[in-house]
Amino acid sequence: MNNTPETGTRKNYTIPLITITLLFFMWGFITCMNDILIPYLKQLFQLTFFESMLVQFCFFGAYFLGSLAYFTVSYYKGDPINKVGYKNGILAGIILSATGCVLFYPAATFSVYGLFLGALFVLGLGFTILQITANAYVSLLGSEDSASSRLNMTQAFNAFGTTIAPVLGGHLIFEFFAGADGKFTAEATRIPYLIFAAILLLVAVLIYNVKLPSFETGEVESKGLGALKFPQLKLGVLGIFCYVGGEVAVGSFIISFLHLDSIAGLPESISKNYLSLYWGGAMIGRFLGAISLNHSIGQGKKAIYMLLTAIAVFGVIFSIVDLTFDQASFFLVFIGLNFVAFFIGKSAPARTLAIFACVNVLLLLSAMFNTGEMAMYSILGIGIFNSIMFSNIYTLGIAGLGKYTSQGSSLLVMAILGGAVMPLIQGAVADSSIGLQHSFIVPVFCYLYILYFGIYCSRKLKFVEHAPNVSGH
């Protein structure tokens, strides 16, 4: 793919970025609704932890099957995105996602768990196409060395969606559309998911009418497994598997974890606000990452911009969640630690990734072996250090792939299968004698691998770590 601006020319990609960012927000919002649905569906259908994690298995399993189908077509027929274009690919993904939302209506009407899983599978297929097209598209809207910064910015708005979903989405399903007695019923999901479908279709209309730049390669397109000749891609595939697996596993169990008497003994109605802090932390970290990883800004200005951004975004989160300042103020400590980690990382994507992974390993161990507020704060702090992981693993994985960018992207999206597998494994561990609290050993192994991947890339991909910014983005 030709992602380098023409010599002597600096293209303005502001409008395309804003349009795609809106899309990132919506799919973040809808994805996070899974974390809200899990404990309620578990109660409604009297499920075990393992059975309730089938929600994530079907949703993220669709990523694997959809990406596998894409990769198979790419292998035998050539890359589909090179043929139909990014814009058409994005539109197809939105329409399929909206179809998945509509399928919640019959699932809720008949109150059948299997139908809910089917709707989530279709929704996941739509998001698969969006992941393959939209992430790669953002990485191409400027120079390669600033791709992590751009993708962190769009992912920050994805995290904004995940932040308000527990509050707004939870209110729609479990309060506004709940039964007369205030209890959750399957029917409560019908209207909200129809609303989500309508919004997605409106976004599709907007994207259809916005002129998006196309990227074409001057190289001869070849079939086969060309992307796999790049070692950073092969290692990045497992990195995405571990990251999404770890992030989804932790998010899926937070409400149940905080419900434990030894941790906080909180009811679901309050726990969902703390879940917003977990995802809100990812939003803060991604905004800070977009600034920190932008090589066109001096260190002094970066510090000022990051401080002002952190204060502003924390203020937004605090205005959304139904928590007092005393209840939310602990998060300021994690914001401070995040600042320190960014500056130790010195604006290098791989080095910063390794540092963040190391912090998350320590936080998980703290959550496993402490009780009360220490364990609760540790598990919630993981979100802010998750922040830059997907963006950095993704951009490091596809760095230098050229005409194999979309094929490599499909492999990376295929690895989102981790979000299906790891929560299921943790669910089985939580159901065993090991128990819920110590089941977090599963994501510990995920972050240990990410630590290794970050160290590997910091040593092997020097052109990504230290390349100057030529695009101004």
TrEMBL record:
<dbReference type="InterPro" id="IPR050375">
    <property type="entry name" value="MFS_TsgA-like"/>
</dbReference>
<dbReference type="Pfam" id="PF07690">
    <property type="entry name" value="MFS_1"/>
</dbReference>
<dbReference type="GO" id="GO:0022857">
    <property type="term" value="F:transmembrane transporter activity"/>
</dbReference>
<feature type="transmembrane region" description="Helical">
    <location>
        <begin position="327"/>
        <end position="345"/>
    </location>
</feature>
<feature type="transmembrane region" description="Helical">
    <location>
        <begin position="411"/>
        <end position="430"/>
    </location>
</feature>
<protein>
    <submittedName>
        <fullName>MFS transporter, FHS family, L-fucose permease</fullName>
    </submittedName>
</protein>
<feature type="transmembrane region" description="Helical">
    <location>
        <begin position="436"/>
        <end position="455"/>
    </location>
</feature>
<feature type="transmembrane region" description="Helical">
    <location>
        <begin position="277"/>
        <end position="297"/>
    </location>
</feature>
<feature type="transmembrane region" description="Helical">
    <location>
        <begin position="304"/>
        <end position="321"/>
    </location>
</feature>
<keyword id="KW-0812">Transmembrane</keyword>
<feature type="transmembrane region" description="Helical">
    <location>
        <begin position="191"/>
        <end position="212"/>
    </location>
</feature>
<feature type="transmembrane region" description="Helical">
    <location>
        <begin position="53"/>
        <end position="76"/>
    </location>
</feature>
<feature type="transmembrane region" description="Helical">
    <location>
        <begin position="88"/>
        <end position="107"/>
    </location>
</feature>
<dbReference type="InterPro" id="IPR011701">
    <property type="entry name" value="MFS"/>
</dbReference>
<dbReference type="InterPro" id="IPR036259">
    <property type="entry name" value="MFS_trans_sf"/>
</dbReference>
<feature type="transmembrane region" description="Helical">
    <location>
        <begin position="233"/>
        <end position="257"/>
    </location>
</feature>
<feature type="transmembrane region" description="Helical">
    <location>
        <begin position="113"/>
        <end position="138"/>
    </location>
</feature>
<dbReference type="GO" id="GO:0005886">
    <property type="term" value="C:plasma membrane"/>
</dbReference>
<keyword id="KW-1133">Transmembrane helix</keyword>
<keyword id="KW-0472">Membrane</keyword>
<feature type="transmembrane region" description="Helical">
    <location>
        <begin position="159"/>
        <end position="179"/>
    </location>
</feature>
<keyword id="KW-1003">Cell membrane</keyword>
<feature type="transmembrane region" description="Helical">
    <location>
        <begin position="352"/>
        <end position="369"/>
    </location>
</feature>
<feature type="transmembrane region" description="Helical">
    <location>
        <begin position="12"/>
        <end position="41"/>
    </location>
</feature>
<feature type="transmembrane region" description="Helical">
    <location>
        <begin position="375"/>
        <end position="399"/>
    </location>
</feature>
